[in-house]
Amino acid sequence: GLGKTTGWIHRTVLKNKGVTMIGGVQYKKLDGDGLHIRVEDKKKGAGEDLTLDVDTVIVCAGQDPLRELQSDLKAAGVSVHLVGGADVSAELDAKRAIDQATRLAVQIESVKGE
Predict the structure, then answer these.
(1) Which of 51-55, 56-60, 65-69, 80-84 has the highest mean pLDDT?
(2) Distances 42 to 28, 48, 55, 61, 84 between C-alpha atoms, Å
(3) Which of helix, strand or coil describes residue 63?
(4) Neighbouring residues of 54: CB distance < 8 A, sequence distance ≥ 6
(5) Alpha-carbon distance 35 to 52, whole Å?
(6) For the CA atoms of 100, 40, 10, 13, what is the dihedral angle to 10 degrees?
């Protein structure tokens, strides 16, 4: 499995590639204006509603498959891909999820470059 001390390496690589990671997020909706989210600040005991102008969304949201967003996106004609626990939640396997997500990101970038 993924080593206890290797998570920071993956976060650093993503940060160096310009990936923005936001914790404590509740996904509200995705529409023509962007991805609507609420970010909770547990220290302040408050939250902030934001709309992100996005063309690609990758949701890393734990190990429990929550597919409500998937059906809404598909109904709106948006291409949706599931990886990790959202794809197969039979086991907790971070290495498999990272591998699936990396391969998907490469596919998305190659399509965007065409």
Answers:
(1) 51-55
(2) 18, 11, 29, 17, 27
(3) coil
(4) 34, 35
(5) 5
(6) 110
